[in-house]
């Protein structure tokens, strides 16, 4: 419950795409692909545990919470145990990631340091990103650009416009996941003084923004195809998930509060389905 399994596709999807982009390269390494994905999952779990712990310590998670149960606030797990689990996951991620740093050099070392700092600063520290309307931007950067471009760089030793386009596309999906979470919590976050993006722009504008975030990825891959950066089959297969995006956009527009809980997990599934379909297209194209 504490690691929030429904959100883990946010870490798995971009790493899958980044590695699949490089699968046709002679230097492609399954070990590096597996290690990078494991490291991303550990970082996602660390973010979730940190959010659970720091939101309780900062008085944001209270008995008025309408989202899924948080183990610290509900008393299911003592705060120190959640904190220690967060630290343990971060240390494990660093140990696992040391192989990636040795393999990728100083650029990966910088990304690793930034990712660990981001995991801690999302909910904690003197300037929590989530409390200052920067949660969606952080999701876009770390679980979009950094994840896709970084995993491709680990395999190829360079980057391409294709990796940046796909990093942006998946980043928008992950920003949408964050937006659902924050829109659901507008009332309780406002009381707690947590100024998320949804609190700042209001629920009606958050609903408009969500539509943009789940539709933009499809515009990006179509533009990539028209510019000659993306092959047609992956774009066509990933485009099938537009049906899911359309349904989610409608559901998000018509619901509020606790009714948004299922849409959170479904948006994460949309990201994963998009990533899988695009990756299948890449594999078929390269075969």
TrEMBL record:
NCBIfam families, per the entry: menA (TIGR00751), PRK06080.1-3 (NF004751)
Glycoprotein is among the record's keywords: no
Transmembrane domains' residue ranges: 20-43, 85-102, 137-155, 161-181, 270-286
Pathway: Quinol/quinone metabolism; menaquinone biosynthesis; menaquinol from 1,4-dihydroxy-2-naphthoate: step 1/2
Pfam families recorded: UbiA
Protein's UniProt name: 1,4-dihydroxy-2-naphthoate octaprenyltransferase
EC number assigned by the record: 2.5.1.74
Enzymatic class: transferase
Family, per entry: Belongs to the MenA family. Type 1 subfamily.
